[in-house]
Amino acid sequence: MPRTTTVGIIGAGPAGLLLSHLLHRQGIDSVVLERRDRAYVERRQRAGILEQDTVDVLRASGAGARMDRQGLEHHGIELRFDRRSHRIDFPSLTGGRSVMVYAQTEVVKDLVELRLKDGGTVLFEAEALSVDGADTDRPTVRYRHEGAEETLECAYVVACDGFHGIGRRSLPEDLLTVVERTYPFSWLGILADVPPSCDELIYAHHERGFALHSMRSPQVSRLYLQVDPDDTTDNWPDERIWDELDTRFAVDGDWTLRRGPITEKGITPMRSFVAEPLRHGRLFLAGDAAHIVPPTGAKGLNLAVADVTLLAQALTRHHTQGDETAIDAYSETALRRIWRAEHFSYTMTTLLHADPAESGFDRALRLSHLRYLVGSEAASASLAENYVGFSTD
Fold first, then answer.
1. Residue 141 belongs to what H/E stretch?
2. Sheet containing 211-215: which strands, arranged edge to edge?
3. Which of 169, 183, 264, 281 has the smallest count of CB within 10 Å of its CB?
4. Beta carbons of 384 and 88 less than 8 angstroms apart
């Protein structure tokens, strides 16, 4: 006999887990299928910046207690260029809004614990194989778990299974439109056991390339360097990484980059990707299954949260009132926010990175734009508004 549920969710990342949690709070049952084991899911290193709306959703749903104890609230960011530092103050420019530094790994741990504590069904090492009957009133997910193939019968299926998952591939090819951009650089990211050298994130533009100083906790720093797309970590011994970070963060003044043991390093390609529509029948796409942004704008996790918050509201409205209006509007509504975030992420990426093919004219335009951003209150407010989370509803 097939397992049955109201909402079948593919993927136990933050999107799938939060959706399951939000539905549970409204009395709607769900089953989450995750192909990896729990330990792997809880240690995946991903984003670390939560927008104001994401923080509010976690708090309101009862999932924000540890975030509030251990997260680091940030009221601005620092832009560095021309060996000078410029601070963008979020609260004064956005009516009091801010962001929270709290790693995605920690969000996932919190949500897994909540779902299991509440008796939720999260099946780890359960690989979804296909979604069938999406255009019927009872779609199914075929999956492999504990060596056997099984079927999950649902009223709705939500694919939160990432860029490489089966969810997006289950939409008819003639229905799906995919647009994307690949950038001519990548990020070399490191985790280091050293207290951060800054109180807030530093975004640095340098003629040698972009650098970002972030953090995971008061004891752990997270830093990034722009590198060539075909580069490898073998080319970057620890001392070279610290020396290059020193060069790109350099300012006139007495600021020092703290160095410490590097515990992790990896290279991430930079790309933008959007699939439309986000719905076919009773199958919905959310998170990285539907869109990817370059990490410069800190939008990936926050977009996923926005997607599933919309979906939870829409499914609840149908469950309690029999009203499918919000379900029918999900794709269009979500895509408005997605494209705003795509544009902001694209702008931050092209503004702060050195393009290997650019001319002297291009470089002069970039510097002019940066000077305008920090010199105009209106321009600073636009950056701040987008960074902390700008609603397009």
1. strand 140-145
2. 84-89, 76-81, 202-204, 211-215, 221-227, 177-192, 262-276, 291-292
3. 264
4. yes
Phi, psi of 115 (to 5 degrees): -65, -40
Q: How far apart are CA 41 and CA 146, in angstroms?
A: 18
In the structure encoding, which two tokens stand for residue 142, read together?
């075929």
DSSP structural state of residue 26: T
pLDDT tens digits for range 242-277 = 999 999 999 998 899 999 999 999 999 999 999 999
- From the list 14, 21, 24, 74, the catalytic residue is 74
Q: Respond yes or no: is residue 172 known to be catalytic.
A: no
Mean pLDDT of the chain: 95
Residues 6+ apart with CB under 8 A from 209: 185, 225, 226, 227, 248, 353, 354
Whether the CB-CB separation of 159 and 11 falls below 8 Å is answered with yes
| Helix or strand holding residue 243 (H, E) | helix 238-249
Mark whether 295 is an active-site residue: yes
Tokens encoding 212: 């970002």
Active site residue 203: yes
Q: How far is CA 182 from CA 123, 179, 269, 292, 342, in A?
A: 34, 11, 8, 11, 13
Q: Which of 102, 143, 156, 203 is catalytic?
A: 203
Q: Quick check: bond before 269 cis, omega within 30?
A: no
Predicted TM-score of the model (pTM): 0.95
3 state DSSP class of 268: strand
Give residue 56's pLDDT band: very low, low, confident or very high (50, 70, 90): very high
